[in-house]
Amino acid sequence: MTSIDLQGLTKVYGGIRAVDHLTCRIEPGRVTGFLGPNGAGKSTTMRLVLGFDRPTSGTATVGGRPYATLHEPLRTVGALLDAQAAHGSRTAHDHLRFLTVSNRLPARRIAEVLEETGLATVAHRRIRSFSLGMRQRLGIAAALLGDPPVLLLDEPTNGLDPEGIIWMRQLLCRLAREGRTVLVSSHLMNETATFADHLVVLGRGRLLADTSLQDFIEQHSHERVRVRTSEPARLRATLAAEGHPVVEGDDGRWVVEGATAQHIGALAARAGIPVLELADERASLEQAYLALTTDEAEFAAVPHTSPTTPQEA
Ligand SMILES: Nc1ncnc2c1ncn2[C@@H]1O[C@H](COP(=O)(O)OP(=O)(O)OP(=O)(O)O)[C@@H](O)[C@H]1O
Protein backbone atom coordinates (compact mmCIF):
# COMPACT_ATOMS: atom_id res chain seq x y z
CA MET A 1 0.00 0.00 0.00
CA THR A 2 1.53 3.29 -1.11
CA SER A 3 0.45 6.60 0.39
CA ILE A 4 1.44 10.16 -0.47
CA ASP A 5 2.86 11.97 2.56
CA LEU A 6 3.23 15.71 2.85
CA GLN A 7 5.18 17.00 5.85
CA GLY A 8 5.33 20.75 6.46
CA LEU A 9 5.37 21.16 2.67
CA THR A 10 6.02 24.79 1.76
CA LYS A 11 6.65 26.52 -1.57
CA VAL A 12 7.29 30.24 -1.79
CA TYR A 13 7.40 32.02 -5.17
CA GLY A 14 8.74 35.52 -4.65
CA GLY A 15 6.52 36.80 -1.86
CA ILE A 16 3.71 34.28 -2.48
CA ARG A 17 3.30 31.25 -0.24
CA ALA A 18 1.76 28.96 -2.85
CA VAL A 19 1.87 26.04 -0.38
CA ASP A 20 2.16 26.78 3.31
CA HIS A 21 3.20 24.15 5.87
CA LEU A 22 0.97 21.49 4.39
CA THR A 23 0.92 18.24 6.35
CA CYS A 24 -1.38 15.40 5.36
CA ARG A 25 -1.41 11.81 4.14
CA ILE A 26 -3.30 10.72 1.03
CA GLU A 27 -4.34 7.17 1.83
CA PRO A 28 -4.65 4.17 -0.48
CA GLY A 29 -7.97 2.50 -1.23
CA ARG A 30 -10.04 5.62 -1.67
CA VAL A 31 -10.53 8.55 -4.03
CA THR A 32 -9.39 11.77 -2.40
CA GLY A 33 -10.88 14.93 -3.91
CA PHE A 34 -8.37 17.80 -3.86
CA LEU A 35 -10.30 21.06 -3.64
CA GLY A 36 -9.58 24.73 -3.16
CA PRO A 37 -10.29 28.09 -4.79
CA ASN A 38 -8.18 29.33 -7.72
CA GLY A 39 -4.62 29.88 -6.60
CA ALA A 40 -5.04 27.76 -3.44
CA GLY A 41 -1.94 25.71 -4.28
CA LYS A 42 -3.37 22.43 -5.65
CA SER A 43 -1.30 22.31 -8.84
CA THR A 44 1.83 23.44 -7.00
CA THR A 45 1.34 20.62 -4.47
CA MET A 46 0.96 18.08 -7.28
CA ARG A 47 4.08 19.43 -9.01
CA LEU A 48 6.03 19.17 -5.75
CA VAL A 49 4.91 15.55 -5.27
CA LEU A 50 6.05 14.79 -8.83
CA GLY A 51 9.42 16.48 -8.31
CA PHE A 52 8.80 19.08 -11.07
CA ASP A 53 9.51 21.75 -8.47
CA ARG A 54 11.56 21.75 -5.25
CA PRO A 55 9.91 22.61 -1.95
CA THR A 56 11.16 25.72 -0.13
CA SER A 57 10.91 23.55 2.99
CA GLY A 58 9.21 20.35 4.11
CA THR A 59 8.87 17.10 2.17
CA ALA A 60 6.56 15.31 -0.24
CA THR A 61 7.06 11.55 -0.50
CA VAL A 62 5.38 8.65 -2.29
CA GLY A 63 5.61 5.36 -0.44
CA GLY A 64 8.11 7.04 1.90
CA ARG A 65 10.46 8.21 -0.88
CA PRO A 66 10.81 11.50 -2.76
CA TYR A 67 9.62 11.08 -6.37
CA ALA A 68 13.11 11.88 -7.73
CA THR A 69 14.55 8.79 -5.99
CA LEU A 70 11.95 6.34 -7.32
CA HIS A 71 13.61 3.68 -9.46
CA GLU A 72 10.97 3.43 -12.21
CA PRO A 73 8.62 6.30 -11.37
CA LEU A 74 5.84 5.44 -13.87
CA ARG A 75 5.42 2.08 -12.13
CA THR A 76 4.75 3.92 -8.86
CA VAL A 77 2.97 7.15 -9.80
CA GLY A 78 0.75 7.91 -12.77
CA ALA A 79 -0.09 11.56 -13.31
CA LEU A 80 -2.31 13.69 -15.49
CA LEU A 81 -1.33 17.33 -15.09
CA ASP A 82 -1.68 18.87 -18.52
CA ALA A 83 -3.62 16.96 -21.15
CA GLN A 84 -2.29 19.34 -23.84
CA ALA A 85 1.31 18.28 -23.17
CA ALA A 86 1.37 15.35 -25.65
CA HIS A 87 3.11 15.99 -28.98
CA GLY A 88 0.42 16.84 -31.58
CA SER A 89 2.25 15.29 -34.55
CA ARG A 90 2.45 11.85 -32.89
CA THR A 91 -0.32 9.30 -32.92
CA ALA A 92 -1.80 8.17 -29.60
CA HIS A 93 -0.15 4.79 -30.08
CA ASP A 94 3.28 6.35 -30.78
CA HIS A 95 2.95 8.65 -27.76
CA LEU A 96 2.32 5.66 -25.50
CA ARG A 97 5.03 3.59 -27.21
CA PHE A 98 7.55 6.38 -26.56
CA LEU A 99 6.58 6.30 -22.87
CA THR A 100 6.82 2.49 -22.59
CA VAL A 101 10.26 2.44 -24.22
CA SER A 102 11.67 5.35 -22.20
CA ASN A 103 10.33 3.89 -18.96
CA ARG A 104 11.06 0.23 -19.75
CA LEU A 105 7.43 -0.81 -19.47
CA PRO A 106 6.00 -3.88 -21.24
CA ALA A 107 4.70 -3.06 -24.75
CA ARG A 108 1.48 -5.03 -24.10
CA ARG A 109 0.36 -2.21 -21.78
CA ILE A 110 -0.17 0.07 -24.82
CA ALA A 111 -3.10 -1.97 -26.16
CA GLU A 112 -4.44 -2.52 -22.64
CA VAL A 113 -4.62 1.17 -21.71
CA LEU A 114 -5.92 2.19 -25.15
CA GLU A 115 -8.73 -0.32 -24.68
CA GLU A 116 -9.37 0.78 -21.11
CA THR A 117 -9.66 4.45 -22.05
CA GLY A 118 -11.83 3.85 -25.13
CA LEU A 119 -9.13 5.05 -27.57
CA ALA A 120 -8.38 1.75 -29.34
CA THR A 121 -10.19 2.77 -32.53
CA VAL A 122 -8.35 6.11 -32.79
CA ALA A 123 -4.94 4.83 -31.70
CA HIS A 124 -3.33 5.63 -35.06
CA ARG A 125 -4.75 9.12 -35.45
CA ARG A 126 -2.54 12.13 -34.81
CA ILE A 127 -3.07 13.73 -31.42
CA ARG A 128 -3.52 17.18 -32.97
CA SER A 129 -6.87 15.99 -34.37
CA PHE A 130 -8.07 14.91 -30.89
CA SER A 131 -10.79 16.76 -29.00
CA LEU A 132 -10.07 17.96 -25.46
CA GLY A 133 -11.97 14.94 -24.12
CA MET A 134 -9.90 12.52 -26.21
CA ARG A 135 -6.70 14.20 -25.00
CA GLN A 136 -7.92 13.77 -21.42
CA ARG A 137 -8.46 10.06 -22.12
CA LEU A 138 -4.97 9.83 -23.61
CA GLY A 139 -3.56 11.55 -20.52
CA ILE A 140 -5.32 8.95 -18.37
CA ALA A 141 -4.00 6.17 -20.62
CA ALA A 142 -0.45 7.46 -20.10
CA ALA A 143 -1.00 7.69 -16.33
CA LEU A 144 -2.19 4.06 -16.24
CA LEU A 145 0.62 2.73 -18.44
CA GLY A 146 2.89 1.63 -15.58
CA ASP A 147 -0.05 0.09 -13.65
CA PRO A 148 0.93 2.37 -10.74
CA PRO A 149 -0.39 2.13 -7.16
CA VAL A 150 -0.65 5.95 -7.00
CA LEU A 151 -2.53 8.29 -9.36
CA LEU A 152 -2.46 12.09 -9.36
CA LEU A 153 -5.04 13.60 -11.69
CA ASP A 154 -5.49 17.34 -12.16
CA GLU A 155 -9.05 18.11 -13.36
CA PRO A 156 -9.45 14.77 -15.21
CA THR A 157 -13.09 15.37 -16.20
CA ASN A 158 -12.15 18.56 -18.05
CA GLY A 159 -13.56 18.40 -21.59
CA LEU A 160 -15.30 15.05 -21.14
CA ASP A 161 -18.87 14.64 -22.39
CA PRO A 162 -21.54 13.24 -20.00
CA GLU A 163 -20.75 9.67 -21.05
CA GLY A 164 -17.04 10.35 -20.51
CA ILE A 165 -17.73 11.77 -17.06
CA ILE A 166 -19.62 8.63 -16.04
CA TRP A 167 -16.77 6.51 -17.41
CA MET A 168 -14.22 8.58 -15.44
CA ARG A 169 -16.27 8.28 -12.24
CA GLN A 170 -16.43 4.49 -12.59
CA LEU A 171 -12.72 4.31 -13.42
CA LEU A 172 -11.71 6.36 -10.36
CA CYS A 173 -13.87 4.22 -8.07
CA ARG A 174 -12.48 1.00 -9.55
CA LEU A 175 -8.87 2.20 -9.18
CA ALA A 176 -9.53 2.99 -5.51
CA ARG A 177 -11.27 -0.37 -4.97
CA GLU A 178 -8.15 -2.05 -6.34
CA GLY A 179 -6.31 -0.48 -3.39
CA ARG A 180 -4.66 2.40 -5.25
CA THR A 181 -4.11 5.90 -3.92
CA VAL A 182 -6.13 8.27 -6.10
CA LEU A 183 -5.79 12.06 -5.72
CA VAL A 184 -8.07 14.09 -8.00
CA SER A 185 -8.21 17.87 -8.13
CA SER A 186 -11.40 19.45 -9.41
CA HIS A 187 -13.35 22.68 -9.53
CA LEU A 188 -16.63 20.86 -9.98
CA MET A 189 -17.99 20.34 -6.49
CA ASN A 190 -21.10 18.35 -7.26
CA GLU A 191 -19.10 16.24 -9.70
CA THR A 192 -16.45 15.60 -7.02
CA ALA A 193 -19.19 14.50 -4.63
CA THR A 194 -20.06 11.66 -7.02
CA PHE A 195 -16.63 10.02 -6.89
CA ALA A 196 -14.68 11.20 -3.82
CA ASP A 197 -14.63 9.24 -0.56
CA HIS A 198 -12.37 11.72 1.16
CA LEU A 199 -11.51 15.41 0.73
CA VAL A 200 -8.40 17.51 1.20
CA VAL A 201 -9.28 21.19 0.94
CA LEU A 202 -6.71 23.98 0.57
CA GLY A 203 -7.07 27.73 1.02
CA ARG A 204 -4.14 30.09 0.34
CA GLY A 205 -1.76 27.15 0.46
CA ARG A 206 -2.94 25.96 3.87
CA LEU A 207 -4.87 22.86 4.82
CA LEU A 208 -8.50 23.76 5.56
CA ALA A 209 -9.94 20.26 5.79
CA ASP A 210 -8.81 16.63 5.61
CA THR A 211 -11.95 14.62 6.19
CA SER A 212 -14.46 12.19 4.69
CA LEU A 213 -16.90 13.63 2.16
CA GLN A 214 -19.84 12.92 4.45
CA ASP A 215 -18.26 14.54 7.53
CA PHE A 216 -17.24 17.55 5.47
CA ILE A 217 -20.80 18.18 4.33
CA GLU A 218 -22.17 17.65 7.83
CA GLN A 219 -19.57 19.92 9.47
CA HIS A 220 -19.92 22.80 7.02
CA SER A 221 -23.63 22.95 6.52
CA HIS A 222 -26.59 23.44 8.78
CA GLU A 223 -29.91 21.70 9.15
CA ARG A 224 -32.87 22.72 7.02
CA VAL A 225 -36.24 21.18 6.25
CA ARG A 226 -38.50 21.32 3.21
CA VAL A 227 -42.20 21.25 4.01
CA ARG A 228 -45.53 21.61 2.14
CA THR A 229 -48.93 21.88 3.76
CA SER A 230 -52.56 22.36 2.73
CA GLU A 231 -53.01 24.85 5.60
CA PRO A 232 -50.25 27.41 5.15
CA ALA A 233 -51.67 30.12 7.43
CA ARG A 234 -51.94 27.77 10.42
CA LEU A 235 -48.56 26.14 9.85
CA ARG A 236 -46.87 29.54 9.46
CA ALA A 237 -48.40 30.74 12.73
CA THR A 238 -47.46 27.52 14.57
CA LEU A 239 -43.85 27.66 13.35
CA ALA A 240 -43.55 31.40 14.06
CA ALA A 241 -44.75 30.81 17.63
CA GLU A 242 -41.88 28.31 18.03
CA GLY A 243 -39.34 30.75 16.56
CA HIS A 244 -39.11 29.15 13.09
CA PRO A 245 -39.52 31.66 10.25
CA VAL A 246 -40.19 30.07 6.86
CA VAL A 247 -38.85 30.91 3.42
CA GLU A 248 -41.58 30.35 0.84
CA GLY A 249 -40.69 28.93 -2.57
CA ASP A 250 -42.70 29.57 -5.76
CA ASP A 251 -43.84 25.94 -5.86
CA GLY A 252 -45.69 26.00 -2.52
CA ARG A 253 -42.77 24.35 -0.70
CA TRP A 254 -41.27 26.11 2.27
CA VAL A 255 -37.80 25.90 3.71
CA VAL A 256 -37.30 26.07 7.47
CA GLU A 257 -33.69 26.79 8.43
CA GLY A 258 -32.05 25.32 11.51
CA ALA A 259 -34.65 22.59 12.09
CA THR A 260 -35.10 18.88 11.45
CA ALA A 261 -38.00 17.12 9.71
CA GLN A 262 -38.61 15.21 12.95
CA HIS A 263 -39.08 18.42 14.93
CA ILE A 264 -41.26 20.21 12.34
CA GLY A 265 -43.33 17.04 11.83
CA ALA A 266 -43.97 16.78 15.58
CA LEU A 267 -45.04 20.46 15.81
CA ALA A 268 -47.45 20.08 12.89
CA ALA A 269 -48.88 16.83 14.27
CA ARG A 270 -49.48 18.37 17.71
CA ALA A 271 -51.37 21.25 16.08
CA GLY A 272 -53.31 18.82 13.82
CA ILE A 273 -52.02 20.49 10.65
CA PRO A 274 -51.87 18.24 7.57
CA VAL A 275 -48.41 17.92 6.04
CA LEU A 276 -48.20 16.94 2.36
CA GLU A 277 -44.42 16.81 2.11
CA LEU A 278 -41.66 16.87 4.73
CA ALA A 279 -37.95 16.15 4.27
CA ASP A 280 -34.56 17.02 5.71
CA GLU A 281 -32.62 18.89 3.04
CA ARG A 282 -29.07 17.76 2.72
CA ALA A 283 -26.64 20.50 1.77
CA SER A 284 -24.61 19.85 -1.35
CA LEU A 285 -20.83 19.63 -1.32
CA GLU A 286 -20.86 22.94 -3.19
CA GLN A 287 -22.75 24.72 -0.39
CA ALA A 288 -20.49 23.20 2.29
CA TYR A 289 -17.39 24.09 0.30
CA LEU A 290 -18.49 27.69 -0.25
CA ALA A 291 -19.25 28.05 3.46
CA LEU A 292 -15.67 26.98 4.23
CA THR A 293 -13.71 28.74 1.49
CA THR A 294 -15.46 32.07 0.93
CA ASP A 295 -12.81 33.92 2.93
CA GLU A 296 -9.98 31.94 1.42
CA ALA A 297 -10.56 32.66 -2.28
CA GLU A 298 -7.57 34.48 -3.72
CA PHE A 299 -9.75 36.13 -6.33
CA ALA A 300 -12.99 36.48 -4.35
CA ALA A 301 -15.38 38.97 -5.88
CA VAL A 302 -15.41 42.34 -4.17
CA PRO A 303 -19.00 43.21 -3.17
CA HIS A 304 -20.38 45.95 -5.38
CA THR A 305 -21.18 49.18 -3.57
CA SER A 306 -23.09 51.90 -5.37
CA PRO A 307 -21.41 55.25 -5.50
CA THR A 308 -22.77 57.79 -3.04
CA THR A 309 -25.17 60.18 -4.69
CA PRO A 310 -23.69 63.66 -4.42
CA GLN A 311 -25.84 65.87 -2.21
CA GLU A 312 -26.87 69.18 -3.65
CA ALA A 313 -25.95 72.11 -1.51
N1 LIG B 1 5.86 29.17 -11.24
C1 LIG B 1 5.25 30.07 -10.46
N2 LIG B 1 5.80 31.29 -10.25
C2 LIG B 1 5.18 32.20 -9.46
N3 LIG B 1 4.01 31.99 -8.82
C3 LIG B 1 3.42 30.81 -9.00
C4 LIG B 1 3.98 29.78 -9.82
N4 LIG B 1 3.15 28.71 -9.79
C5 LIG B 1 2.11 29.06 -8.99
N5 LIG B 1 2.27 30.30 -8.53
C6 LIG B 1 1.36 31.01 -7.60
O1 LIG B 1 1.13 30.14 -6.53
C7 LIG B 1 -0.24 30.21 -6.09
C8 LIG B 1 -0.85 28.81 -6.15
O2 LIG B 1 -1.04 28.45 -7.52
P1 LIG B 1 -1.57 27.01 -7.98
O3 LIG B 1 -1.57 27.01 -9.48
O4 LIG B 1 -0.80 25.95 -7.29
O5 LIG B 1 -3.05 27.02 -7.42
P2 LIG B 1 -4.26 26.07 -7.80
O6 LIG B 1 -4.97 25.78 -6.52
O7 LIG B 1 -3.79 24.93 -8.62
O8 LIG B 1 -5.14 27.05 -8.69
P3 LIG B 1 -6.13 26.73 -9.92
O9 LIG B 1 -7.31 26.06 -9.31
O10 LIG B 1 -6.45 28.10 -10.45
O11 LIG B 1 -5.39 25.86 -10.89
C9 LIG B 1 -0.91 31.24 -6.98
O12 LIG B 1 -0.88 32.48 -6.30
C10 LIG B 1 -0.03 31.26 -8.21
O13 LIG B 1 -0.09 32.52 -8.83
From TrEMBL:
Task: Write the record's keywords in alphabetical order, separated by commas.
Answer: ATP-binding, Nucleotide-binding, Transport
Q: Which domain of life is it from?
A: Bacteria
Q: Which residues form the ABC transporter domain?
A: 4-229
The record's InterPro entries line, in alphabetical order, gives: AAA+_ATPase, ABC_transporter-like_ATP-bd, ABC_transporter-like_CS, P-loop_NTPase
Molecular functions (GO terms): ATP binding; ATP hydrolysis activity
Alphabetical list of PANTHER family matching this protein: ABC TRANSPORTER, ATP-BINDING PROTEIN
Q: In which family does this protein belong, per the annotation?
A: Belongs to the ABC transporter superfamily.
Q: What is this protein called?
A: ABC transporter ATP-binding protein
Q: Which organism is it from?
A: Streptomyces antimycoticus
